[in-house]
Every structure is written in C-alpha cells, then in structure tokens.
Amino acid sequence: MRFTAKLLSNKFNLSLLGNDVVIESLGWQNCRNANMLYFAGNQAYLEIGLNMPNVSVLLTTQALAEKNKATTKTFLISEFPAYTFTLIQNYLVAETEFYFEKKESVIQSNKIHPSAIIATNNVYIGKNVEIAANVVIYENTRIEDNVRIQAGCIIGCEGNQTVRYEDKIFFTKHGGGVLIEEGVEICAGCIIDKAIFKETTTIGAYSMIGSFSYIAHNDKLGKRVVLTFKVGIGGTVTIGDDVVIGSGSTIRNGISIADKAFISMGSVVSKNVGVGEHVTGNLAIPHEKYMDFFKTIR
C-alpha cells in the first residue's frame, strides 16, 4: 500500500499544509531514510527537520507551521505532535505492511534446539547456525551463517520507547529488524531489541556478546566487538570495529564509540569515545586521567 501525507491526514484527522507527497519512512533526527515523516514540538527540533533533506513531511503544531511556512516541505498539523507521531507509528506497525511484507521464515540450519521459539514469518536463519534451548526469535530478524546463540536469549523484541500524553504513558511499537552478521557469538541470557523504524539493530561479524547483556533498538555494533558480561547499551548507539566493553558497563543512548576503543569494567559512558581511546569510571573519562585522580584518594 502506498502511503501519502493526505492518506495519513484523513486517517488521523490532521490538517495538511502543502503538497501531497509520498511517505516512505518515519524517523527522528538521526535517521537518514528517504521521504521521511518527522515530528517537532518546538522550534529547535523543527529547524532540524527543515534542514534534513530526507524529510518530506513535518508533523508539528499550527503555530510552528505558520511561523515556518516559507519552506517547500509539507506539514501535518497536530497540537500534540509526539503523541500523534506515536499513533501513526503504531498504526503502521500493527495494521499495515508499511515496514515489512509478511513472508514465511527461512531456516537453513538443523542445529536448533526444539524448545527454541522462532517466528513463523520474516525470520532468516543461515547455514550452520546454532540456537540453544529457550531462545526466542521474533519477526524481522536475519541471522547470517555460523552464528551461535546460547540458551535463553531474546532476539528482536521491542525496547522501551514511550511518549507521555495527558496523564498516561503510551508505548511506541517497533517496525524495524535485527541483523546478526556472520560468526557472531551471543552468550546466554542476552536481549537484542529490533529497530523502531526502517533500519536494523546490527551486530557486526565475529562479535562476541557476553552473558546477560542488553542491546537496545537501533544500535549498530561493528565487526569483532566484545561485550564481556552484563553490558547495557542504550538506544541508537554506534560502535565501531574492534571495540572492547568491560563487564557491567552502561552506554548512554545516542552516542558513538569509535574503532578500537576500550571501556573499562563498570564504566558509565555518557559521551562519545574516540578512536583507540581507553575510558574508565562513572562518569567515564580517559583512563590515565581517572587513574591519576584515583591515586589522590587512596
């Protein structure tokens, strides 16, 4: 089904200002999909959307649309843009094939434990993949060859993304997927969320995900990344190749960790980490700086 600004305008009783254009994706400021619907509840976020060439439709208030009407972009009008955006997203995920056309799952491995639960549709499992007891794999998951998933893992579930409206909190359904590249090892008890929009949460080739680690929606892990044990990564984090993250570390959502970085165990990382940088502590700072400070208090 072809989705346009006018179709959504009619479906959700929204005013339409500008041309009726095709909407191929939804997303936020870090998304780069073409012909995207983007919402903004204030001028600062609206200006971000106005300057994004991939945004074709802006969901915002009447006042903000009038203030910025010189643009060639199309506006959908709502006095509660964040809430309306969530309603649109949930409708597209639950009631349409906007994100994925349903196709029967393809399984090319015979090394799957009988207690594993694999979605009937939209799962691909490559050759020589090992899936242990009580693993759950949801729709829109692709697992390449020679991957090993140990007991109790959950792949492709929905993460915590909510919006407040009046006195309630509403959940945002996830329409994206998970891509696990060749040779990945996922130890017992890990959780990997699917992406929210038209993208994947990606685990790069030959990475090793330690037991009880959590990887949130939209994360991109490069090749040969090591999460040692019980690592928590917030949403929309980009991690380069050959990164090592120590046990018990927490990574804030929306940041980047460059190639060959090293995160000491127990660190809380709240800002970007550069190429080859070693950070330590809560909040994490360069390791040598942390150790110099630590020596002063022992």
What can you tell me about this protein's structure?
By secondary structure, this protein is an alpha/beta fold. The protein has two domains: 5-95, Udp-n-acetylmuramoylalanyl-d-glutamate--2,6- Diaminopimelate Ligase, Chain: A, domain 1, CATH 3.40.1390; 106-297, UDP N-Acetylglucosamine Acyltransferase, domain 1, CATH 2.160.10.10. The protein has five helices and 33 strands. The strands form five sheets. It has a ten-stranded mixed β-sheet. Strands 6-9-12-17-20-23-26-29 form an eight-stranded parallel β-sheet, with no helix packed on it. Strand 4, helix 3 and strand 5 (74-77) form a beta-alpha-beta unit.
Assign a percent range to the helix content. 10-25%
Quaternary structure state of the chains depicted? single chain
Q: Report the sheet-strand fraction.
A: 25-35%
- The average pLDDT is 95
Q: Which stretches are poorly predicted, pLDDT < 50 over at least 5 residues?
A: none
Examine the secondary-structure arrangement and name the CATH architecture of the largest domain: 3 Solenoid
Strand order of the largest sheet: 7-10-13-18-21-24-27-30-32-33
How does the major sheet shape up?
10 strands, mixed
CATH superfamily of the largest domain: Hexapeptide repeat proteins
CATH topology term of the largest domain: UDP N-Acetylglucosamine Acyltransferase, domain 1
Rg (CA only): 21 Å
The number of helical elements comes to: 5
DSSP summary, beta strand count: 33
Report the CATH C-level class of the largest domain: Mainly Beta
Secondary structure class reads: alpha/beta
Number of domains: 2
Q: What overall geometry do the principal axes of the alpha carbons give?
A: globular
Terminus-to-terminus distance: 65 Å
